[in-house]
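ugh ok so i messed up the first submission bc i forgot one of the chains. this is the corrected input, ALL of the components this time, i swear. 1427 residues overall. if the numbers dont match what u have on ur side tell me asap before i send this to the collaborators (the ones from the other lab, u know who)
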Amino acid sequence: MLLWLSVGIVGFCLLPWYVLEDGLWSFEWLFDGYPFNTDYAPAAFLLTQGEKLWLSPIPLFLLFPLVSQVFKHSTAQRSNVLIMVGVAGIAWMVMQGLGIGLRGWNFEALGQLFGPLEARQFGMGFGALFVFATFLFFLSTGIAGRGAVNGDVFVVGAIGLVIAVVTVFIFFPIVQMLSSAVRDNDGVYSLTIFAEKFFQNKFWGLGCIQGGTRCGVAWNSLFLAVLVGFLTTLLGLVFALVATRSGLKRGNFLRAMTVLPIITPPFVIGLAIILLFGLSGSVTKLVADVLDLQPTRWVYGLPGIVIAQLLSFTPIAFLVMIGVVEGVSPAMEEAAQTLRASRWQTFKTVTLPLIRPGLANAFLLGFIESMADFGNPLVLGGNYDVLSTEIFFAIVGAQNDQGMAAVLAIALLIFTLSAFYVQRRWLGKKSYTTKTGKGDSGMHVTMPKRVLLPCYLVAAVWTLFTATVYGMILYGGFVEMWGLNNTLTFKHYITAFGVGFNEFGIHFKGSAWDSFFTTLKIAATAAPLTAMLGLLTAWLLVRQNFAGKNAFEFGTMLSFAIPGTVIGVSYILAFNVPPLELTGTGAILVISFIFRNMPVGVRAGIASMSQLDKSLDEASLTLGASTWKTFTRIILPLMRPAILAALVFSFVRAMTAISAVIFLVSAEYNMATSYIIGRVENNDYGIAIAYSSVLIVVMLAVVALMQFLVNRNGQGSRFAQSRTNW
Amino acid sequence: MSKKQPLLLLVSGLLIAALSAPVHSAEKLTYYCSAQEEWCQLMATGFEEATGIKVSMTRKSSGETLAQIKAEASNPKGDIWWGGTGDPHLQAAEEGLSEEYLSPLRDEQHDWAIKQAESAGNQTIGIYSGALGYGYNEEVLKSNNLPVPECWKDLTKAEYKGHVQMANPNSSGTAYTTLATIVQLFGEDEGFEFMKALHKNINQYTKSGSAPIKAAARGENTIGIVFMHDAVAQAVAGFPIKVVAPCEGTGYEIGGMTIIKDGRNPDSARKFYDWALTADVQSRALEVDSFQVMSNKAAKSSPMAPDLDSIKLIDYDFAKYGSSDERKRLLKKWDDEVSVLPQ
Amino acid sequence: MTIQQTRSKAASVEFKHVTKRYGKEITAVDDVSLHVHAGELVTLLGPSGCGKTTTLRMIAGLEMVTSGHITIGDTDVTKLPATDRDVAMVFQSYALFPHMSVMDNVAYGLRINKLKKDDVRVRANRGLELVGLKGYGDRLPSELSGGQQQRVAVARALVLEPQVLLFDEPLSNLDAKLRRQVREDIRDIQTGLGLTVVYVTHDQEEALAVSDRIIVMNNASIAQIGTPRQLYDAPKDEFVADFIGEANLMDGQIESVENEIATVSVDSIRFELPAADHTTGAIRVAIRPGRIQILPENSPNAMAGNVLKVTYAGRHMEYQVATAVGELFVVSDVDSDYVEGQAVGVGFETKGPVLLKV
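and heres the new structure output, hopefully the right one now
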């Protein structure tokens, strides 16, 4: 208690209240006019100098809990005081932060109420962060003191922390974005503007059905997503059947292929497809020569996007399907057979119905992924516009209409959230596990031939295709100019990753090193934080009971259904101005990764935690360990596989993500993927592909290392499973 | 209850903050660049070497950069914006996002560069110029047995159906320049008729301005409507590209440079501004295969660069067609009348 | 850990009108009051879902009461979380930490409570010695047998010298033979150290064997509290009578009550019992199978019966006998030799019948 009070006081009296121009981590302020320079001054100093008077209530709030000490309040009274102070402090900080900006009042109404304000303020910095944390602690202690969650301060604090960060980094930006959708260019709120934009022909036109012209982007997106969802599910099922029911030992190979899409940088598949099927692509030319046809640009548009997305997302569907297919107890199938069902009848009447919910799950995953995909439509879209790319170009295009981007983003959100909702409803109602954990013996029934043969064929074609695409990606980095000049060369690697020596030792002179190191640094920072936040949330969800748990869970899982583009746009809108100035920093990238990938950490955590006997926690508690100690000493060590899975996943995703990143990179913090886009834009396929190959190899190494570590610990890898539970 | 532990969470939060820390340096410059990557890099490192001022650079297209400057308007992060087609620079001036500045090197510049500055109250200046045109892939053209196009009107002929590519004027400054050029060349009504006829032949409206010629270079397209210097660059890179200056005459762009208003390092920004206008610096554009005509009269130009004097140039009205009202009107008209037509 | 020290720490547990609800619908424990004396082993016995485990978990602090008060020793612990209560618990699944050695498991609580390193080692070793696992400290729990794991769990709870030691169905995962032995070990340790133990089980035989007193629970409330013998010989109601041991239940009639002595008739049998609160009228009567006598036909103070089924059970004989008050289950001497279909008389031993609350 006193410790936290001192944290708050340090934050208020010693640390600079506002964000420093040089960034939080620079200590220049210590030597440069501190504490008198108003840019660097702590809040207490500002007040004594009569500036930023709106900060004056904060010390009162900070010190108020001492009243309880003086008056020897009972526990209940003390808790009430703490709750009051915590709420008041947080509310005051939020209000002044939102109310007073760079140019005085942020809202005209305030100006009319209080008269004009000369002063202005920057974003909150160190001091504010400390003080805010102190208020949050007051609030949690107070709530715990009133007996919530068995009076456990750590649990209440953890819930408070998660709610605070989710509110600030998911809900706040989304609300900001939504509000910009209902504003016209002069900042006047108007629903008619929204309706006009939302229902325009460009979105919802049905020209493609009536003939001649194109359909609206919303329909395009929807159609694409449904098609891709359907096809990936089908392919995923086929592979799952081949892996488990064919009597062949191909499972491991197929499983290994499932890591491909997450370690593949965006655009790469698209580029490979252009090089194969484009107007001058090798396959197109070959077919044209053989059949004596005129080559066409058939691949640009729906066909190209579908092919690329199938390559990207089928492994995800496979992961979902194999879990479900394996989950069907062989005993069920054996029972059917002893009841005289033929193999085909068994398959049709027992196996298929049992995996039906899995099919729905895989479909919805493919649907959401396709909706949110940004890289493939950008490269291969041709004139087939979809929502995700339209959002991007509404922001960066010459029209530069943030309101339009927000409207498009809302349409996208409606689609994905509906899908998300349906999925949750479905999963919430049905239980389709037939395995009980142990005691299931027997072999899976081999599939009937008439199912098996087509399955083999499809799987073989797809595998060959994938192998070709990835082979080309590796090869493409070593040729002078793909398609025109196939001389082998290391040129691209040297340009991108050249290393020289100068008087200071090794000198990374390749043009890609900068973004490469930044990417590693950002990914390495984001991964542990993502894992930590995800597992903490999972632990709260599985092990703790508190009011509003369902809403809490929905909130934390929500960001999965929000496409990266939307996150990117909303972050720019929300964090460019005080109270939180984050644009242009590395922090905003890290934060966007944390909240994009957190749901996966949560899912992995939930999956692995539900396998831990709850009495382990309870044993630790009854032995006198606090909740925190139980969490760190018992839960965390036992969850190592899940932690590793979450770590690897968030690390890799941070290295390959593009959709949110493209809005958030800055000069100093340029990411690998955005560098690659630059090369692609510049027609430098060689460097783009070389860079992508390097990334793939690096990520493969990371994944392999993690797998090795997990397996060596003898606890089995949950890396794969954790991803199926989205 | 341990009280240390929530502190740990706080500390990890601060770790994020660690990443927002740039390297300590006395003088610095945040530099937004809208030209091609190499050129941007060259300017950044060149300036660092010449002045010792630490430069942090972001490369984004001119549309993206304008969007960013606009978004950051209440708290500008950038100091100077160099390169990219002039319209967004003019637009920035018009919207009060840029700072007025008169460089001592003004006298060394071409007239068109100064005219550009004057039209925007000296809040921007021309640094290079390039004429609009198109390029075609010789091999693809030949394999399709198509005649060599020479004029704008040729592109609307039925035989080129599915062979022409241009950028979407909504997302690309180049394509907007095309639209504005056509409107100025043929008048608004006839101009839109031309765009509608052209629409039938377009195989794709790309998002980025130079994408059509890049696609053509790789054989993914036949004819790309772009700035001629972009087409030249592809030809120089070894692709089978031929450049065409349309017979009717054509418009041009003037690349701009702008000091961002209320930037954090105004002195560095001015230093860069002056430095970028010197002949020596401008001559280095050739090192990175940039074939625009530079603003400094003494700057060297490439023999491969299109000679502006030999091309029929229209009297492009930058003030009118660079204004956001006119832009919005034309784009809306294009959206409503052209883009919705069947192809 | 000397016995004196431990004895001085053992504390009583008291529930005052404790109720536990989950949501609005489910009442797991309904207005329960009970008192466990210091140094006593009390069993919570009842069918599954009766609230016994919830009661135990409320003592541990793993569940919080909805209303009422809990006192351990002199302290009101109603609002204290598990961490801050001086109790230890042995779980049904043992809940040994799989990533720690046996020694680390036993020492966990000591370390958490910040004892000195030397103390931790000495006390953990003594704990292991007490449960007969000296020398097993370096093993992992997974390398031990079920019985050994169980004893590690007991040692881990014991070394903290808690005021109250809780057992949640500790024997349910052991086979029958081991169960008998371990339960005796637990009882020995408890009496030896003078611990207060609350013990949950659904096995009445186990409860009868280990307990000082038994609390029988049914439908979220207490059915009866008493020593094993009290419960066996004088169950208060049909539920207790039936749940503890087997009982024959039948209708009877209180014919008169005089001087607190009731005269009861069951069919043609008459006997006298303390009336307690019962009054004249219909009554339910319970009698243990071993307290029924099978007599020759037409014996005095017996009713007519007919042997339906004869089972030889090794140590004794079991008979199903049809009578006017229903089929009775009778256990009698192994040397008795009634046969199926035989007409017999059925009588009650003097201490046999019990009057139940209706």
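quick check: Residues 27-129+254-305 of chain B form a domain with the D-Maltodextrin-Binding Protein; domain 2 fold (CATH 3.40.190.10). that seems consistent at least. Chains B and C do not touch (no CB pair under 8 Å).
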